[in-house]
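User: Hi! I'm working on a homework problem where we have to compare a predicted structure to a textbook description. Could you give me the structure for the chain below?
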Amino acid sequence: MAIGRNSRVVADNFNNTASLDERREPHRDPAMESDVSGYDVEKTEESGRSMSRVGGNCAAGTTNVDEESVVSVRKQASNEANNSIKYRTCSWQKTAMLLFSEYICLAIMSFPYSYSVLGLIPGLIVTIVVALFVLYTSLIVWEFCMRHPEIRDVCDLSQILYYGWTWVWYGTAAMFLLNNTFVQGLHVLTGAKYLNTMTDGAACTIGFSAIIATISWMCSLPRTFNTLSILASFSALFTFVSVVLAAIFAGIEDHPKGYNTGGPLGKLYGEPDVLSITAKGATFVSGMNAFLNISYTFIGQITLPSFIAEMKKPEDFRKALYAVTIAEIVLFCVVGGVIYGYTGTKYNTAPAFGSLGDEVYLKVSFSLMVPTMIFLGVLYASISARFIFFRIFENTRHKGEHTLVGWASWAGILGVTWIVAFIIAEVIPFFSDLLSLMSSLFDSFFGFIFWGTAYMRLRQADYGPGWISKRGIRGIAGFALNVFIILIGVYMLTAGTYVSRGFGRVS
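Assistant: Happy to help. Predicted structure tokens:
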């Protein structure tokens, strides 16, 4: 098929007929060069040093790759200047909205449960540490994409990262599409359960799932992230209001749900008990599940190359990363800590909306989460659709113009992804367990292993063989840190996969 044949190599938007080896020597346009400095994720200031492409050295006479990247991005934007549909149009503020909508989601409301297992202080520490690790690895993703502006998604990136091996591209593509489709399926199922709860079962869950899938398909139709960012802004705003209200409601109501009722196990008696440290007797499985629950919420690097590929000024992407990371740490810690503080360990549920004793409070706060239930699936559907669409219609007018073939194909591809998501969410009886297993398998690579490896490839490209010793203590520290990041990924792949059997992910 055209998809498989054309996708084996990374497309170059400013020289679409070049092979992967030829693209390793980027074209230089002195008239379009600028003074953008090179950037090292280990430094906070501009370094001004030469930064080589991982797939090959820069063209002779180019001072650094950040500069060459800006030239390439401008050339890409220039090539589509006369198109009706322009992709390189997203500002860093709009990209930040896309990131907010991805990370500020229903999963926030599972943090109180994680804190009840880990203890409040360890839980807050884990939240901050994981956030900083994800920020660090995201900066590595950004640096890699800046050196290779022809990258359109994480599949292109993986092929360059692993020496142009075709099987890596195919393996990454399979994980990429499966991950995105499972996220879509999860939101179809979550939306259906919400409608079922709000209407007291007025229709069957399958019917509600079909309604959610149809609405999501319609919301997925915009072709550019620039347009989707408008929906993303509303999604992030509604989610923020929802979780803040839930925290306020937990604080002002007299007692959490189930207070002094005994519960199914006869343990729901007494005041909420808040643990500052991990309780004695806590099992490895429960602790690992709590850690994974926090980690899964932060891990989203799989989407970053796709976002960067549509930025007008991708050198500004780190601004979006910093803004989102600060917001995540503050919101996750405050909301998770406050709700856990008022519901305690015994009365805690995941998601924490179920801990609210007043049904009005529960329905008001939970209902404001509906835009996120829809949009997050929409975002991942759009990312999957452009992965397929671009490879079918690269170098054709259907990609950049409003043609019947282009729009029909775009809508059809999206329709297929939502139909598949609907089927796997409704037909597979063990969908929740399978989703947790897939999360451990995919997030270990997309969250950690890829980016520890990317760091080493970047530094080797900069400094050549023996780069660790050449850089002294910084080289040793950087190498050790990124080996640790890779080991975290391996740990999630092994131990995480083991404990994920029977652990449901909230997203």
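For your comparison, note the following. The two ends are 34 Å apart (CA to CA). Residues 302 and 446 are 6 Å apart (CA to CA). Good luck with the assignment!
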